[in-house]
């Protein structure tokens, strides 16, 4: 893994670890909660986070748009936890194989053509953004005890 890839992996993984913790107290009855009519439901938002990271990273590695490789079908919170865990494992594996040339290669997402490393930063920012929304959702359904927003990096 390149130095830049390693830095982004560590940044992403700190936030993904918190996402997994955040979902621990969510119950299946919370999955349909949404704060406004056209918003994602709590369940769909968690799955969107997992699937999007998988999609971004696979696309960067392949050099062209690639749909997520993980299942996004769920009925219960356990299904969602399994989806997020599968995405974490899949994304970690792809990160480990990411090369400097893949990070420099231009990638077209919906007409935006920039190097893979730009999309990599966007992937992490996208996850952080939606994880912040999920914190609000979780609080709104009555879960008061939530993890800190990020795992602290190890002291060097």
Summarize the structure.
This protein is mainly alpha-helical. It is built from 5 helices and 2 strands.
Explain this structure.
The protein is built from five helices and two strands. The chain is mainly α and 156 residues long. The longest helix is centred in the last third of the chain and has 25 residues. The relative contact order is 0.22.
List the keywords:
156 residues, 59% helix, globular
Main β sheet profile: 2 strands, antiparallel
Residue share in helix: 55-70%
Strand order of the largest sheet: 1-2
Please work out how many helical segments DSSP would assign.
Answer: 5
Distance between the termini: 20 Å
Share of β-strand residues: 5-15%
What sort of overall outline do the alpha carbons produce when their principal axes are compared? Answer: globular
How would you summarize the topology of this molecule?
Blueprint: H1 3-22, H2 42-62, H3 77-97, H4 100-104, E1 106-109, E2 112-115, H5 116-140
Antiparallel strand pairs: 1-2
């Amino acid at each position: 893994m390149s130095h830049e890839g390693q830095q982004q992996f560590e940044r992403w993984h700190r936030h993904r670890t918190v996402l997994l913790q955040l979902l621990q107290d969510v119950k299946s009855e919370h999955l349909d909660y949404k704060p406004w009519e056209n918003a994602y439901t709590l369940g769909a938002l968690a799955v969107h986070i997992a699937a999007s990271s998988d999609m971004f990273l696979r696309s960067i590695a392949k050099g062209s748009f690639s749909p997520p490789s993980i299942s996004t079908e769920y009925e219960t919170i356990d299904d969602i936890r399994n989806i997020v865990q599968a995405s974490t494992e899949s994304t970690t594996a792809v990160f480990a194989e990411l090369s400097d040339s893949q990070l420099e290669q231009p990638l077209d997402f919906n007409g935006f053509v920039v190097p893979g490393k730009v999309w990599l930063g966007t992937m992490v920012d996208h996850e952080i953004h939606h994880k912040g929304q999920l914190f609000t959702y979780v609080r709104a359904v009555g879960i008061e005890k939530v993890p800190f927003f990020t795992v602290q990096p190890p002291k060097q």
